[in-house]
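Q: For a teaching session next week I want to show students how multiple molecules come together into a single three-dimensional assembly. I've collected the sequence lines for a complex. Could you give me the predicted structure tokens for the whole thing so I can convert them for display?
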Amino acid sequence: MAKILIIGEHDGKTLNPSTHKCVTCATGIPGAEITVLLLGADTAAVAAQAAAIQGVNEVVRVDRPENAHPLAATFAPQVAAVASGYTHLFGPSTSFGKDLTPRVAALLGVPQVSDLMAVEGAHRFRRPIYAGNAILTVEADPARLLVATVRVASFAAAPTGGSAAIVSRTLNVALPTHTRYVGAHTGSTDRPDLQTAKRVVSGGRALASADNFKILFALADKIGAAVGASRAAVDAGYAPNELQVGQTGKIIAPEVYLAFGISGAIQHLTGIKDARTIVAVNKDPEAPIFEVADVGLVADLFQVVPEMTRLLGG
Amino acid sequence: MKKIMVCIKRVVDYNVRVRVKPDETGVMLEGVKMSVNPFDEIALEEALRIKERGTNAEVVAVSIGVADTQQQLRTALAMGADRAILVQTEQPVEPLTAAQTLLAVAKKESPDLILLGKQAIDDDANQTAQMLAALWDRPQATYVSKLAIDGAKATATREVDAGLETIEIDLPAVISVDLRLNEPRYVKLPDIMKAKKKPLDVIGLDSLGVAASTWLKPVKTAAPPQRQKGILVKDVAELVDVLKKKGLL
Ligand SMILES: Cc1cc2nc3c(=O)[nH]c(=O)nc-3n(C[C@H](O)[C@H](O)[C@H](O)COP(=O)(O)OP(=O)(O)OC[C@H]3O[C@@H](n4cnc5c(N)ncnc54)[C@H](O)[C@@H]3O)c2cc1C
Ligand SMILES: Cc1cc2nc3c(=O)[nH]c(=O)nc-3n(C[C@H](O)[C@H](O)[C@H](O)COP(=O)(O)OP(=O)(O)OC[C@H]3O[C@@H](n4cnc5c(N)ncnc54)[C@H](O)[C@@H]3O)c2cc1C
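A: Of course. Below is the structure for the complete assembly, covering every listed component.
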């Protein structure tokens, strides 16, 4: 039997879908018994959401004021304290999980497998390496707690409708004070979230200014899409950093990805390999993006984007 | 700020299109160009800027790797590191082993700051900095795109999924750097000549008392599934039409 502890991700109000995806990954392990761990200042609301995920057996809440912001240095000793008695510890491969999970693994003296994309057995997994140019099958020592992050783009969200037990725990763990939260600067949230959106409209260096990027936002709003960007566009200041897609940005799996003026560098393609349909608009017929695009159009984006927006109008 | 340690990993150059060996035992690395992990160049650049801003901190570049990793450490010295340490091993090291090794070096060197890349572009593990911070029992600031040092404290802006987050940490601390922290300088020829005279110590992994763990066994390395070649459409009207037929718009 496998006892799996999943570190739930949330903002105090809403459970992040990355948690539902970790549950799907965990249910692939034979005999999985799944616990979701929630740390926060008040996790009552998100605990109810976690308890409703099908496949979850138990939700453990650890509420204390120090947990108001997810600082790895504060969370890690608490997660480590809960983890004993489990065979697997999973965190999502989001900025939250990637920051926290290795710190927990090191506290427990065990290695971590990053970015699980497929489960082949209780201790055997596949993960991408070299920006997704190779897929490594790796086997971990079954005698030790297995710590891993789950590549969220590889798994569908587990459905809701379950009703797991919720328990609150008080941990006798001393917390460090050497790391303090100061503040956050987050983008507007009225558009769909890039990581879970069904449709993504994305722009590259060709957009040439932050002002021009607005034509993509107009198209995105018309079709209910999230907006993404290449690194070149973000570096140049045309789009904020949280929109970057790729090896070092977000790895996404929308139903359709529309790339405008993006050349298709391997580091960018890593981020969109799991998109169901890739659409590329580029004025260079030799652009590498056309090698992976399902639908391509060789044309000037400054003509295509407004025309598309108009055709879809109404 | 007296000393900054920067971790440098030797990786396949980011321009190389890596291919899997036909027998699936790994990727083809023979004759492939090797470089300093791009994130580590950014880490080193940041260390040099902190030094040049008047702290005059000593910058020590540390790498764990094969004998040829001396090349990447020479690059680091040419960029401006004061000295370098190679912990030599012919075996690939897991991130936990890398972190334990870097900890052993840190205990000898007592740096005020350790800078690493947020991920190495070969294994993409994104673990070493966090593990090192845990083992050292010090703060971590990962994915940093802005860093300000103020006495015994640092303020770090981190790139997170929702945007940017700012935290304050006490030194000594571990920092992992993101792409937008800075743009690394180019190395000039005279610097390469000067770098040849800078100290580069080579020590064995076993001399640090670290037992390399082999708890993760690579079973096979396969090529990723290829996407099928798509279609080209002639104009916007056809594009919209195709996407509507596929039920995507
Ligand atoms: C360590 C490392 C990590 C990286 N991580 C990432 C990452 O996470 N994500 C990422 O995206 N990149 C990443 N990169 C950068 C990557 O290598 C490329 O440099 C980047 O993706 C290029 O962005 P781009 O396609 O927008 O720009 P370009 O490569 O400059 O392409 C612009 C394209 O626009 C086309 N074009 C120009 N004008 C028009 C027009 N009017 N209409 C239509 N088409 C037009 C051109 O033909 C060209 O193909 C990384 C690089 C490194 C070294
Ligand atoms: C199953 C498995 C199979 C492997 N097979 C191979 C193989 O065939 N060939 C091979 O060469 N390696 C192999 N490795 C080792 C692997 O490539 C990495 O060296 C190791 O996992 C560290 O991961 P990373 O570099 O992605 O760490 P990350 O955590 O992504 O690295 C982040 C940062 O840590 C620092 N850092 C990491 N490693 C070092 C280092 N050695 N020296 C100095 N600083 C460092 C750098 O600043 C780097 O930017 C294997 C590892 C595993 C787990």
